[in-house]
Amino acid sequence: MAQEFQRARRPEQKQQRYDAILSAARALAERDSVRDTSLADIAAEVGMHKSALLKYFTTRDEIYLKIAAADYVSWAVEMRELLAKAGSIGDVAAAFAETLATRPLLCDLIAHVPLNLERTVPLESVREYKLTIMPGIFELAEDVRRLLPSLTDEDILDLVTVVSSVAASLHQMANPPETLARLYREMPELGHASEFEPTLHRIVETFLRGQQAR
Fold this sequence. Notes:
The structure is a single chain. 76% of the residues lie in helices and 0% in strands. The protein is built from 10 helices and no strands. It has 214 residues and is mainly alpha-helical. This is Transcriptional regulator, TetR family.
């Protein structure tokens, strides 16, 4: 746990506190998952009272929506770099699978954004989140369209839905809570044997080939 901060008075001190909250929330979610991290946990990790933390963020979900936006942006940048070198459907599928496999927190957040995070925060926070991530998604869509010109606008939207839904689900299945993990160790036939990266690659490639074959 960090030592408790002195009261932030100057703008740079407030920014330091703001950044520390985001860093603590990120570290806790990476260790324990988004679901199992509370606002009190974050406040304790930073070394401040929960009431003081609420001066920076209205809820725990607002913190994680902010982190989700930042991670979406950085993911889109890496995706565009890989797509610039891609030349086939397999390359496109590999880019999605490889980049998301190295971002487990983003996959965890993707599951929570529509389920919880967007539903509990102020409308302005949702608007800011959408406006932050959409430019990168639109640019990413154009890169995919350049490589696969037969895809329609609807196909691209479906691709985004498939990738986000499958990545979120695969991540949750690959990281069960301890009670389920114990059950799967005792009865492996009940577990989910799919590995994240090759499974996501296979599903995305199958989807894209199906869209092109229509």
